[in-house]
Backbone:
């Protein structure tokens, strides 16, 4: 069975307010050695057994473009792996 | 420079309403070959140049436990990699 692990991140230059809040919390807690934080979203999709890698790949790209990411402000990366 | 990529996921059995909504959207759009969806959060942290891998590792675990995940309902995994 093919499984896709997808990470959706903000594009370079897009404001990431959650990261700014986390940065402030880290500073308050004394973690001053962390100098850059980026946040994103993660999705894991499992495909039916009968689906081939090529079909899964096409489907992952389509759902990322249409539904899971906003292409104006976000980029996505994914990995397909075979799981049992 | 060490960089950590962190994925925070719901523990097995924890309700994931976002995933249910996505599943419904996939079904409506005709993506019936995706039979399981899980959502999570992603964080990328960059450490100062002077920080060694062991120190980065300890810091990542601490901030994941204290701040980035809720250990009651979430698990986290991370990878440390050296970037330039």
Residues:
């Amino acid at each position: 069975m093919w499984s896709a692990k997808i990470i959706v991140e903000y594009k370079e230059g897009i404001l990431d307010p959650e990261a700014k809040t986390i940065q402030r919390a880290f500073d308050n807690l004394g973690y001053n050695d962390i100098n850059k934080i980026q946040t994103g979203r993660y999705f894991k999709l499992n495909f039916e057994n009968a689906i081939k890698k090529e079909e899964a790949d096409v489907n992952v790209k389509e759902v990322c473009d249409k539904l899971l990411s906003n292409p104006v402000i976000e980029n996505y990366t994914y990995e397909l792996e075979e799981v049992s």
User: Anything to note?
Assistant: The two ends of chain A are 6 Å apart (CA to CA).
